[in-house]
Amino acid sequence: MEPFVHLIAHTVDGLLWQVGAFFQWVGVVIWAILAIAFLLWFMLIQRALLLYRYAQADVQRFFPAWSFCCGALEGRSAHNAEAIFSQGLHGLLHRYGREINMLIALCPMVGLLGTVMGMITLFHQMALTEGSQVSAFADGIFKAIIPTMASMVVALSGLFAHAVVRYRTEAVYASVIKKMRAQA
What we know:
By secondary structure, the chain is mainly alpha-helical. It is built from six helices and no strands. It has helices spanning 2-26, 29-56, 63-71, 76-93, 97-129, 134-183. The chain starts with a helix and ends with a helix. The model has no long low-confidence stretch (mean pLDDT 78).
């Protein structure tokens, strides 16, 4: 069993070294893209778990607050209380929406910053070497384009996931409100 553990440890160590070397090779901007990706997916997963919790919740859990807001009042006051309760639930379910949109919009810009920085580095190195080596030029362009590609992957996957979460949010919100009105 010990040789197997040693093999796994050696493989993980080698993989971590390769990932670290890749991040150092590409540049500092890739760390910013990674941080944006972690923050974006943390918010998306948090919202998805919240939606799951409210989709599975029994309306009896919300009924005391609903009946307090709407049942004790009559007429226009009951309608205002229902609107306040609905807005509170809507705000809770749409938590982090603006922040998620901001991170999705920010990600490609950070990737383009990385590409510009990479191209500046490439042209500076070409000026220092005074050569037109095609392989060095191609390697530099490849290195410069990676941040844009990585940021677009993060942004597009985040955009798709956010659209799914937004759609589910509206469905859960409508379902909870419908169940609460039926109970009242």
